[in-house]
Amino acid sequence: MPVQHHFRRVLIANRGEIAVRINRACRALGIETIQIHSDADRDSLAVRLADHTVCVGPAPSAQSYLKADFILSAAKTMKADAIHPGYGFLSENESFAALCEDEGIVFIGPSSRVIGLMGDKATARRMAEEAGVPTTPGSPGTVTDAEHARQIADLIGYPVMLKASAGGGGRGMRIVEHPDELVSQFQSAAREAKSAFGNDAIYVERYLRKIRHIEIQILSDGDNVLHLGERDCSIQRRNQKLLEESPSPVLDDQVRQQIGDAAVRLCRHVGYVGAGTIECILDQESGDFFFMEMNTRIQVEHPVTEMVTGIDIVKEQIRIARGERLSISQDDIRLSGHAIECRINAEDPDADFMPHPGMITSARFPGGPGVRVDTHVFSGYRIPPYYDSLIAKLIVHGADRAEAIARMRCALSELHLDGIKTTTDFHLQMLQSDAFTQGQVHTRYVEEFLRDQK
Asked: CB within 10 Å: which end of the chain, N or C, has fewer?
């Protein structure tokens, strides 16, 4: 039996909309919240909603939200029973999770051992192969240097993808079309990986041109491992997701079952406990799917799954961390209708999506049946320039995909955030494109769409 924990206070080691989301889930469970913040976030909505607050440093993330020792000290001082890391920052940091374990503070996520296994992409590929989950042809582990990468590329054929083993968010990734590009691209990927993650290890895999990005939401209490259906995250720009939907418009029931079963099998193999996501690619030419990576945390796009399943994933994540068993089985999970999420970023699409921090002079959010807004911004809020540009997630639910698209168009037209540039109009244009409405997109479609708009 898992160890039972009583959570009186949870420290939220994050900011922005996910901090607000976690705060609300905790309070719905009768748990007090401790919100950490930087100097720049002193007046944020997450701080206003929390029961207790602690400043952990100046604005730069490296001096505040990434200071593991400061955060752990705050948790002990404030007598927190657990820490919820959200996504980004320290959410997939093996060392931070281990520190929490050593201090007897529950890390709301998987164990440090599992984070270490699945956080390294090369090791995660090996785990997938051991579990019988298909992976794209590539190097059996990380490569030692550019010459080793060339040997692998010659073996599996071009084009290839170079990927940072410790990477995420599209950083440390390069597509190599020809052998004479490999050395320079390898060096570039390794430098970026070293700068972003402190680890320049690279592995090589075959690059598939026309793919869909499909991910499976997992909940596991250690014995009961469930998948909550898939999300299609193929609308991306430079490997950054912009729009997600569930279910995928291209999966049939047979492939959906195969991917779900594979995700559950992998989680059982590594002993995964908590909420997580198995990310796959679907080759649209062959119809085959391949494991890509695992995110050992809550995802930005988790509301899409919540809308079609009716399951509060963050609350379940907290309950699992308390040592509770899941109260549902796989047979209880049914996908109802269709959901779409648009990420509203403070960026200027007309200026190559340049970040656009500043004061929101007035804010008006949409509403009505099937419309949900997850945000931390409000009228008079000043967006700081130090963090990710995501300022809101607009999520809609419809009886089917056509209704969800129509509802999202209406919701986007009602959304007004004056004083800054946002991606709202970009999403409206995207939702009106024939390729999207017909479900005929791929992970490079946005680049094609933007070229056509010029």
From this structure: C
